[in-house]
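Is this the right way to post C-alpha coordinates for a design question? Let me know if I should format differently. Anyway, here goes:
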Protein backbone atom coordinates (compact mmCIF):
# COMPACT_ATOMS: atom_id res chain seq x y z
CA UNK A 1 0.00 0.00 0.00
CA UNK A 2 1.25 3.42 -0.87
CA UNK A 3 1.27 6.19 1.63
CA UNK A 4 0.99 9.73 0.55
CA UNK A 5 2.28 12.65 2.48
CA UNK A 6 0.72 16.01 2.10
CA UNK A 7 2.44 19.21 2.98
CA UNK A 8 0.09 21.70 4.44
CA UNK A 9 0.70 25.36 4.19
CA UNK A 10 1.37 26.76 7.60
CA UNK A 11 -1.55 28.62 9.13
CA UNK A 12 -1.61 32.22 7.91
CA UNK A 13 -0.34 34.73 10.36
CA UNK A 14 -3.14 36.67 11.98
CA UNK A 15 -3.61 40.28 11.00
CA UNK A 16 -4.00 42.92 13.59
CA UNK A 17 -6.04 46.08 13.13
CA UNK A 18 -4.85 49.15 14.95
CA UNK A 19 -6.77 52.38 15.24
CA UNK A 20 -5.87 55.62 16.87
CA UNK A 21 -7.53 59.01 17.13
CA UNK A 22 -5.70 62.12 16.02
CA UNK A 23 -6.92 65.64 16.75
CA UNK A 24 -5.73 68.33 14.37
CA UNK A 25 -4.70 71.62 15.97
CA UNK A 26 -4.74 74.88 14.02
CA UNK A 27 -2.20 77.72 14.23
CA UNK A 28 -3.87 79.33 17.25
CA UNK A 29 -3.43 76.22 19.35
CA UNK A 30 -7.15 75.41 19.45
CA UNK A 31 -8.40 72.09 18.08
CA UNK A 32 -9.51 72.34 14.46
CA UNK A 33 -13.12 71.73 13.51
CA UNK A 34 -12.61 68.09 12.51
CA UNK A 35 -10.93 65.06 14.00
CA UNK A 36 -9.36 62.29 11.98
CA UNK A 37 -9.58 58.59 12.64
CA UNK A 38 -6.73 56.63 11.14
CA UNK A 39 -7.05 52.88 10.66
CA UNK A 40 -4.13 50.72 9.65
CA UNK A 41 -4.26 47.03 8.99
CA UNK A 42 -0.91 45.36 9.50
CA UNK A 43 0.18 41.83 8.71
CA UNK A 44 2.90 40.15 10.73
CA UNK A 45 4.74 37.32 9.06
CA UNK A 46 8.15 35.82 8.67
CA UNK A 47 9.26 38.84 6.65
CA UNK A 48 8.36 41.20 9.46
CA UNK A 49 5.63 43.77 9.86
CA UNK A 50 3.93 45.10 6.75
CA UNK A 51 1.11 47.65 6.30
CA UNK A 52 -1.59 46.00 4.24
CA UNK A 53 -4.14 48.79 4.22
CA UNK A 54 -4.28 52.30 5.62
CA UNK A 55 -7.42 54.40 5.79
CA UNK A 56 -7.86 58.00 6.91
CA UNK A 57 -11.37 59.04 7.81
CA UNK A 58 -12.29 62.63 8.53
CA UNK A 59 -15.01 62.90 11.15
CA UNK A 60 -17.02 66.14 11.10
CA UNK A 61 -17.04 68.08 14.34
CA UNK A 62 -20.14 68.68 16.44
CA UNK A 63 -20.34 72.25 15.10
CA UNK A 64 -20.23 71.00 11.52
CA UNK A 65 -22.97 68.42 12.14
CA UNK A 66 -25.10 70.99 13.94
CA UNK A 67 -24.69 73.48 11.06
CA UNK A 68 -25.80 70.79 8.61
CA UNK A 69 -28.93 70.16 10.71
CA UNK A 70 -29.72 73.88 10.81
CA UNK A 71 -29.32 74.14 7.04
CA UNK A 72 -31.62 71.15 6.51
CA UNK A 73 -34.28 72.70 8.77
CA UNK A 74 -34.06 75.95 6.83
CA UNK A 75 -34.42 74.07 3.54
CA UNK A 76 -37.56 72.32 4.81
CA UNK A 77 -39.07 75.64 5.92
CA UNK A 78 -38.33 77.32 2.60
CA UNK A 79 -39.70 74.33 0.69
CA UNK A 80 -43.01 74.27 2.60
CA UNK A 81 -43.56 78.01 2.29
CA UNK A 82 -42.40 77.90 -1.33
CA UNK A 83 -45.15 75.41 -2.15
CA UNK A 84 -47.70 77.67 -0.43
CA UNK A 85 -46.46 80.68 -2.41
CA UNK A 86 -46.59 78.77 -5.70
CA UNK A 87 -50.22 77.82 -5.00
CA UNK A 88 -51.06 81.46 -4.24
CA UNK A 89 -49.31 82.70 -7.39
CA UNK A 90 -51.21 80.16 -9.48
CA UNK A 91 -54.48 81.21 -7.79
CA UNK A 92 -53.77 84.88 -8.49
CA UNK A 93 -52.93 84.24 -12.16
CA UNK A 94 -55.93 81.97 -12.75
CA UNK A 95 -58.31 84.50 -11.19
CA UNK A 96 -56.66 87.35 -13.10
CA UNK A 97 -57.07 85.51 -16.40
CA UNK A 98 -60.65 84.51 -15.61
CA UNK A 99 -60.04 80.76 -15.69
CA UNK A 100 -63.07 78.48 -15.92
CA UNK A 101 -63.90 77.17 -12.43
CA UNK A 102 -65.55 74.10 -13.94
CA UNK A 103 -62.10 72.84 -14.95
CA UNK A 104 -60.82 70.21 -12.53
CA UNK A 105 -57.31 71.70 -12.49
CA UNK A 106 -58.58 75.19 -11.72
CA UNK A 107 -60.87 73.92 -8.96
CA UNK A 108 -57.98 71.89 -7.52
CA UNK A 109 -55.74 74.96 -7.35
CA UNK A 110 -58.54 77.05 -5.84
CA UNK A 111 -59.30 74.35 -3.29
CA UNK A 112 -55.67 73.88 -2.23
CA UNK A 113 -54.89 77.59 -2.06
CA UNK A 114 -58.13 78.77 -0.43
CA UNK A 115 -57.04 78.06 3.20
CA UNK A 116 -53.88 80.11 2.66
CA UNK A 117 -55.67 83.08 1.05
CA UNK A 118 -58.61 83.06 3.47
CA UNK A 119 -56.94 85.00 6.34
CA UNK A 120 -56.29 87.88 3.96
CA UNK A 121 -59.75 88.09 2.35
CA UNK A 122 -61.54 91.46 2.51
CA UNK A 123 -58.42 93.46 3.43
CA UNK A 124 -58.74 95.23 0.07
CA UNK A 125 -61.57 95.41 -2.42
CA UNK A 126 -61.26 92.94 -5.28
CA UNK A 127 -62.05 94.62 -8.57
CA UNK A 128 -63.54 92.44 -11.29
CA UNK A 129 -63.22 93.18 -15.03
CA UNK A 130 -65.24 91.03 -17.40
CA UNK A 131 -64.61 87.73 -15.53
CA UNK A 132 -61.11 88.64 -14.35
CA UNK A 133 -60.54 89.30 -10.67
CA UNK A 134 -57.58 90.96 -9.01
CA UNK A 135 -57.41 89.05 -5.76
CA UNK A 136 -55.31 91.14 -3.40
CA UNK A 137 -55.60 88.47 -0.71
CA UNK A 138 -53.33 86.14 -2.70
CA UNK A 139 -50.70 88.85 -3.18
CA UNK A 140 -50.79 89.85 0.48
CA UNK A 141 -50.55 86.16 1.40
CA UNK A 142 -47.45 85.71 -0.76
CA UNK A 143 -45.73 88.60 1.00
CA UNK A 144 -46.80 87.51 4.49
CA UNK A 145 -45.87 83.83 4.00
CA UNK A 146 -42.49 84.83 2.56
CA UNK A 147 -41.81 86.99 5.62
CA UNK A 148 -42.90 84.19 7.97
CA UNK A 149 -40.61 81.71 6.20
CA UNK A 150 -37.67 84.09 6.43
CA UNK A 151 -38.39 84.82 10.09
CA UNK A 152 -38.65 81.13 11.03
CA UNK A 153 -35.47 80.22 9.15
CA UNK A 154 -33.58 83.10 10.75
CA UNK A 155 -34.87 82.20 14.23
CA UNK A 156 -33.73 78.58 13.81
CA UNK A 157 -30.34 79.79 12.62
CA UNK A 158 -29.97 82.13 15.59
CA UNK A 159 -31.12 79.59 18.17
CA UNK A 160 -29.46 76.40 16.95
CA UNK A 161 -26.45 77.41 14.85
CA UNK A 162 -23.08 77.02 16.53
CA UNK A 163 -21.53 80.18 17.92
CA UNK A 164 -18.99 81.81 15.65
CA UNK A 165 -15.54 82.29 17.12
CA UNK A 166 -14.67 85.90 17.87
CA UNK A 167 -13.02 87.63 14.96
CA UNK A 168 -15.17 85.87 12.37
CA UNK A 169 -17.18 88.38 10.32
CA UNK A 170 -20.96 88.04 10.40
CA UNK A 171 -22.84 87.36 7.20
Amino acid sequence: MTEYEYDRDPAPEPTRREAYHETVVDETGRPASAARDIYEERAYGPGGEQVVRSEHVSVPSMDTRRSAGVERAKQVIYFIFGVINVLLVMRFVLLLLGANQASSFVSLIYGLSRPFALPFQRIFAEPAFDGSVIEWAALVGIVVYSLIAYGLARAIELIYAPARPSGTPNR
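Format looks fine. Someone answered above. Worth noting: The two ends are 91 Å apart (CA to CA). Helices lie at 62-96, 104-117, 136-160.
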